[in-house]
Structure prediction request, 203 residues.
Amino acid sequence: MAQSTTEASQAEATADILRRLDRLESKEEIRALSSSYAAACDEHDLPRLMDLFTDDACFDASNGMMVADSKSAIEALFINTFKVRGPGYHWTHDITIAMDAQDPNSATGLVMSHAETTPNGVVSIAAMRYADTYRRERDQVWRFSNRLISFFYYVPAAQYASSLDQLNRVYMGGEHQAADYPERLAPWQAFIDAHGPLQLDKS
Prediction:
C-alpha cells in the first residue's frame, strides 16, 4: 500500500510538472502570436495575419471604429485598412497573460503596443492596448478568438505635442474623438472622486 501511495504521489507530481510546463510554453507561444500580428500588419501579409485568428474570431474597438464579428469580416476590415495605409511599424511592450484554470486551451491577455503608421498618407503615431482572448485549437496552435483595441492616442505626428494632454487625442474617420483610456477607466475616475480633479500646470 505504501508503494502504491508513493507511486500515486509521484504520478501526480509528474502531472503537475507537465501542466506547469504546458502553461509556460503556451504563454511563450501567445507572446509570439502578438509579435506575429504586428509583423503581419506591417508587411500587409494578409494570409499570415488571418491564420492568427480562429474561424469564429471577433475584432472590436472601444471607440466602435474597427469592428468585425467573424473571420471573413476581420479579413475585409484589414483589406480596407491596408488599402489606405502605407508603410508602418508596430511593436509590443508588456504582455500579461492569464491561463484559464479550468481550460488549458483558453487564455486571456493584455498587450501594450505602439505604432507608427501612414493612414491616407499622413504620418501618424499611436499608443494602444489590446484585451485579448486566446484559444488553442485542434492543430495545437494558439490563435486570437477575440481582440479589443483601445487607444491612448492616435494622432498625426505633427499634432503629437499639442494633443497628448487633450481628451480628444484620437484622430480617426476624419475627426478627433475622445481617447479610450485612461480617463474613462474606473480607477482613474475613482482617484478623482477621492482626491479631486487633476491640477495640471501648463505654464
Summary: The helical segments are 2-43, 46-50, 71-83, 160-163, 186-195. The CA atoms of residues 90 and 200 lie 31 Å apart.
